[in-house]
């Protein structure tokens, strides 16, 4: 059974408290918070004030995904804004080991994310230091994109590395997740499913989360 991390990026920002309280009442395990700077990805989402607002009402841990350049500048600020976990992109961190260590020192769970074109093998020297590896199954920046089929192979490779060396990190996947592909993703080794528009655009988000949970 997978853990579920609905992405608040797909919520109604005019009713953010209502949507966070809905997630509190759901079977979701985390609230996924996508931070975009318009530089690392071609979109701007929201920053510290919205993260703080979500945290104020959240009863689930905040899974904060930093899709930003030079994330080291903001790690401490997002931890103070309520992040339980901080995930940075391999592609944005020239000194990834140092960044991961800083996240640990702040008391947050360290994660590293990979864009669709980046092979999992680049993480071979850091897998023993992270709590989470996030595989992007769409090109980051916009919600509602179509799932990239090669993701299954990437997850299988990552799971093989995890088993070979006895690592304990969780595998998270983000982008185009739905009830059709969720069971296949879990079968390949995914522990956490991120879903945004699929949850918030559904007629019954609580049921959709529950259905994903049992996939």
Question: Which strand order do you get reading across the main beta sheet?
Answer: 1-8-7-6-5-4-3-2
Number of structural domains: 1
> Mean pLDDT, as a whole number?
95
Span between termini:
7 Å
Count of extended strands: 8
CATH superfamily: Aldolase class I
Spans of at least 5 consecutive residues with low confidence:
none
Q: List SSEs in N-to-C order.
A: EHEHEHEHEEHEHEHH
Instruction: Estimate the helix proportion, in percent.
Output: 25-40%
In DSSP terms, counting alpha (H) and pi (I) runs of 4 or more, how many helices? Answer: 8
Broad structural category = alpha/beta
| Sheet with the most strands, sense and barrel status | 8 strands, parallel
Give the CATH architecture: Alpha-Beta Barrel
Which fold name corresponds to the CATH topology?
A: TIM Barrel
What is the CA-atom radius of gyration, in angstroms?
16 Å
Share in β-strands: 15-25%
GO molecular function: D-ribulose-phosphate 3-epimerase activity; metal ion binding
InterPro entries: Aldolase_TIM, Ribul_P_3_epim, Ribul_P_3_epim-like, RibuloseP-bd_barrel
Pathway: Carbohydrate degradation
Active site: 34 (proton acceptor), 174 (proton donor)
Structural summary, described in words:
- With 215 residues, the protein is of the alpha/beta class.
- The protein has eight helices and eight strands, in the order βαβαβαβαββαβαβαα.
- It has a single domain, classed as TIM Barrel, CATH 3.20.20.70.
- The chain has helices spanning 16-25, 48-57, 75-80, 96-106, 151-165, 182-188, 197-200, 205-213; strands at residues 3-6, 31-36, 62-67, 83-89, 109-114, 132-136, 170-174, 192-195.
- Helix 6 (182-188) links the parallel strand 7 and strand 8 (192-195).
- The mean pLDDT is 95.
